[in-house]
Amino acid sequence: MTLLKKEYEITPFTLAVIPERIDDIRTGTRVLEEHNQYVLRYSPRKIMDNACKFFGSSLRGLKVMVVIKI
């Protein structure tokens, strides 16, 4: 079952965050969980960045740390 949501918080039940074309201009996101699917109007990058900010980081900061560790 697919549900439309305005906001989404990544949880341990989140299996995938997949980009999905909404129309010719905008890209949204399909989020897969064990028993549900959600469609959001935000890009996957925005959802991931919000999850990082919740824990005091940013998606850009995580990318920099990966480069430093490699």
From TrEMBL:
GO terms for biological process: establishment of competence for transformation. Pfam families: ComK. InterPro entries: ComK (IPR010461). This is Uncharacterized protein. It comes from Salinibacillus xinjiangensis.
